[in-house]
Design a protein that fits this description.
By secondary structure, the protein is an alpha+beta fold. It is built from two helices and seven strands, in the order ααβββββββ. It has one domain: OB fold (Dihydrolipoamide Acetyltransferase, E2P) (Beta Barrel), CATH 2.40.50.140. A seven-stranded mixed beta sheet has the order 3-2-1-6-7-4-5, with no helix packed on it. β2 and β3 form a beta hairpin.
């Protein structure tokens, strides 16, 4: 039991060390903008072309917080494709894992094809 507690404490300390400052402060939401590298049912990976940093975000199974850049139009998760510019609002409340709260589809040199 002691070894398990020590392992969990070490994992928490390590994840806190690599957590961005904005996400550490009381579980407040942070944001990250970039190009989608990969999207699946439970994960989205985004790369910022300016800093070349890549972050992955967990997505809950019935995630429905995908909006246009102006926030007026909603989209289904299947509208997000690799190569699109997005802005992901996220938090890190549970063991340092980044969870997407809301995703905005930005239209910088990209267009969303509606197939409805």
């Amino acid at each position: 039991m002691k070894s398990l507690s020590s392992l969990l404490l070490a994992a928490a300390v390590t994840s806190a060390a690599f957590t961005p400052i904005g996400a550490q402060a009381g579980g407040r939401s942070a944001d990250f903008s970039g190009i989608v590298d990969h999207v699946s049912d439970n994960n989205i990976k985004v790369t910022d072309p300016r800093s070349h940093s890549t972050l992955s975000f967990l997505i809950v199974p019935k995630f429905d917080q995908v909006f246009s850049a102006d926030g007026k139009t909603t989209y289904q998760m299947k509208a997000i494709k690799a190569g699109q510019y997005v802005k992901v609002y996220y938090d890190q409340k549970f063991l340092g894992q980044r969870h997407a709260d809301r995703i905005l589809l930005l239209r910088q040199n990209n267009s969303i094809k509606r197939t409805e």
